[in-house]
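One record is given unchanged without comment:
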Amino acid sequence: MGVVEAEALHGAVEALAGSLQPHVATAFFVFSACTVALAALLAVVRLRPPWWCDCTVCEAYLTASWAGEFDNLCDWYAHLLRTSPAQTVHVHVLRNVLTANPVTVDHVLRARFDNYPKGAPFSAILADFLGRGIFNVDGDAWLFQRKLAAAELASPALRAFAARVVASELRCRLIPLLHSASREGNGKVLDLQDVFRRFAFDSICKISFGLDPGCLELSMPVSTLVEAFDTASTLSARRATVPMQIIWRLKRFLNVGDERKLRDAVRLVDALAAEVIRQRRKLGGAATGSDLLSRFMGSIDDDKYLRDIVVSFMLAGRDTIASALTAFFLLLSDHPEVATAIRDEVARVTGDGNRTMAATFDKLKDMHYVHAAMYESMRLFPPVQFDSKFAAGDDTLPDGTVVAKGTRVTYHAYAMGRMESVWGPDCTEFRPERWLRDGRFVPESPYRYPVFQAGVRVCIGKELALMEMKAVIVAVVRSFDIEAIARSSRRPKFAPGLTATFAGGLPVRVRRRRARASGHNPPI
């Protein structure tokens, strides 16, 4: 080999070594980090910190042995709370006190509200997804968003605007879709959960942002971005189930596993929120629209902050309403007598079965049985199954449970709906009549029924959400029979997430109801 060839080979080797050096360094760093993390975890196990516990509850949680008897973690928690004399249990490995005791819920949400904020640990879990949105902050940031949103949601102008949006979405999109499915006979199966998610997404975009999703100029289909929203919700919720935060934090630092998927999903959610903000600006100056986002843009210049507000409204306006409607029609499929009672009330209140959608909207407030059926459905299947706070200081709950500073305290609305001590021996039955007195709807204490939270943090969008759900129920039930396929409300299977979602969706068949004796079709 000549001198020239030798020098060329030497240069090639040096170039190859130089190109590999960053990769080798990265691999070495990752290996070292994993080794340190493993050593730290082994040390934690060996030292057995004060909160570590090998009681039957913690052992069942860590080994997932509860899954041998229960389909869902929430059902196992409900079982534990039913069998607890105090209706409170402590999952020590999570540093989490769970309760289904109304007195304790009152204590946390009202009497000692200042001692039970969302807290930094909770905010950290959801920070990548929700940022500084209203559901993930305390103090002045929470108060600012709440006051501004509450003032707008209470205005007659916005409520009238929202009613028009929902009526339009029903008349032009949802009802025609169900009509189309019903004409295809027994072979057509719809995923009703997906249908309601799309309906709620379109509605919240128009009500909260003043935008039709079809008008967004995106680099990919809206459906892809909405799927990313669902993924971000699921993976963020999964963080809270990990016994030690260091596990998900390390994965996040290394950008591996679920944390890598979450980062990718959040990037797409950011793109969706950014386009919403851009289009809102393009359509007109801030504070000139009748939507919520315009009002916030009149007070906020920070696009990152606006992004967090957009994502929070999407979560509230899409996921919770879709969850509540999906559960309602699953229950209705198992209880056709309730559907009959709803149709009877609608016909009685509207004067006949052929009122227009606008006329029916004016009568919604007089439909007490429909209201009772909605509340009863959410008693059994609350859209948000539980909510957590973190103790700012040491405390003792009314049932005698000692809560140390930094402990997570969770009230479990799903379990509360199944407590005989709260709702009586028929607590597992779907019975709208329990909410009626002399034919009129009578609410229960929000501390027995914390579906919309209670106290200072009570849901400010409650009335708007009830209007939207009630309008959908009336429009769909009077025109269609909905039959769930291979699903039962008696044994649901949930997917993980920040809101209750049925695993595998809700496949249904839609049948157009026979025309009334007048010869007219049920109205839309």
